[in-house]
Design goal:
By secondary structure, the protein is mainly α. Helices cover about 65% and strands about 0% of the residues. The chain has a single domain, classed as Four Helix Bundle (Hemerythrin (Met), subunit A) (Up-down Bundle). A two-stranded antiparallel ribbon has the order 1-2. The chain is globular, with a radius of gyration of 21 Å.
Length: about 270
């Protein structure tokens, strides 16, 4: 018997209160990624560039988890998206630029800080463009080099040179070129494969697990060399795809004709 009250009202009020809160788990992961970037800057200021670069890679791993955790636990929120974007700016924008400057770019004087600023500015522009183009870009590709990959190229080079005991002064201009390349590639329209169409929920052949195990084993041979090589190849792959499409007369733009939002919304690169 209906008593005249709306049974949906308490539920609506409860859900409204729930939306006002902040989801703990995904935002804690985002904060941990932010700490990775902050830790990297502090270590660079103390001359521990090996630890500084490792902090960037740890932040990358955490950044790849927060969005997925939010979707798995149904805790996506606009606050989480903005928090993720700001954390990315610190960990993959400001931190790599400052580490590169402290490592060797400062020896170039004005040219050094210009290169570092160009990288930092391009990271900000890339993240801003990603936020506004979320609904129109083909989810299979990134428009420009994603900021974590750009940060991995810069930090990976520093890590490799540090582990190999190569004098900084011998690679000053190489670092200058890498910093500019990574920064400017972030703001190009070159398509980079996003791996977003690979679902962890789908069944895969047994051989795929074996390949993952082999990949982990190869990385463990010498992480600085292998990781830097992998990200350099990825950083070049976009141009290979671009020129291959252009040669075949195919569309090179990643702007999609569909208005469906990508499944990975909320995971900035």
């Amino acid at each position: 018997m209906h008593d005249g009250t709306d049974p949906q009202l308490p539920q609506t009020e409860e859900s409204r209160k729930r939306r006002k809160g902040i989801y703990m788990v995904p935002n804690m992961i985002t904060l941990a990624a932010l700490f990775g970037g902050f830790y990297s800057v502090v270590m660079a200021m103390n001359g521990r560039f090996d630890l500084a670069t490792v902090g960037i890679f740890v932040a990358m791993v955490l950044d790849s988890l927060d969005g997925r955790v939010a979707r798995m636990t149904n805790t996506q929120s606009a606050f989480g998206e903005q928090m993720d974007s700001l954390a990315d700016m610190v960990s993959f924008g400001a931190a790599p630029a400052l580490i590169a400057y402290e490592w060797v770019l400062r020896d170039l004087g004005r040219w050094g800080w210009i290169a570092a600023f160009v990288y930092c500015a391009c990271a900000a522009l890339r993240l801003a463009r990603f936020n506004v183009n979320t609904t129109v870009v083909d989810k299979r590709y990134f428009q420009g080099l994603p900021s974590p990959a750009a940060a991995a190229i810069v930090a990976g080079f520093i890590w490799l040179m540090t582990e190999a005991d190569i004098a900084r002064t011998d690679v000053t201009w190489v670092m200058f070129a890498i910093t500019l390349y990574a920064g400017l590639t972030m703001v190009t329209n070159v398509p980079f494969y996003s791996f977003k169409d690979l679902s962890l929920k789908r069944s895969v052949p047994f051989a795929s697990i074996v390949l993952v195990a082999l990949g982990i084993a190869v990385i463990n041979i010498h992480p600085p060399t292998v990781l830097f090589a992998l990200f350099v190849l990825y950083g070049l792959s976009g141009y290979a795809v671009y020129f291959w499409r252009k040669a075949k007369g195919r569309q090179t733009s990643v702007i999609s004709t569909s208005t469906d939002e990508p499944d990975e919304r909320g995971l900035h690169e």
